[in-house]
Amino acid sequence: MYYKKMIGKRIYLSPIDPEDYKLYTEWINDMEVGLGITFSRMLMSEATEKEALERISKNGYNFAVVDNETNLTIGNVGFPAIDQVNRKGTVGIFIGDKKYWNNGYGGEALSLLMDFGFNILNLHSINLVVFGFNKPAIRCYEKIGFKEAGRLREAKIMAGEKYDEIYMDILASEFESPYIKELMDERIGK
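The structure assignment produced for this chain is given below.
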């Protein structure tokens, strides 16, 4: 069962359902999916993934990314770390269903999460880390407004090659709301 917390044009964000653990286990153990995230070296069993989903569904702000038409989960997005004092959050995202890759679903999901972060959680900045070999992700992040904030050179070694770990961020003043602003405008009669 999914609940429409943040609604986009093609997807919506819902609280994570821990019963999706078999689907997540399949995705995380797929090397093609895992290369872009930190799970490529991990062996994830169904039991381990179920525990992880139960934990993140209860703590923090983590969402399933759900297709509007089919109501099927295609990935997840969330804030694995939030610093309330300095009003900054770190995001993580992955689209596990490869049929949805390179079609803007990740960007839409991330935009909805950023809208939640900036306009509901009142964050000032949102950041992420991406490996230099993940060119599609970097283009996606830049397209929605993230800027490079720094990098650790040759910090990731994959298949004998060295890649930079790139830090990117975006400020609230640089972001345009795709959902919350419209809801607020309707509420106040704009």
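Interim note for the steering committee: The CA atoms of residues 47 and 97 lie 21 Å apart. The mean pLDDT is 93.
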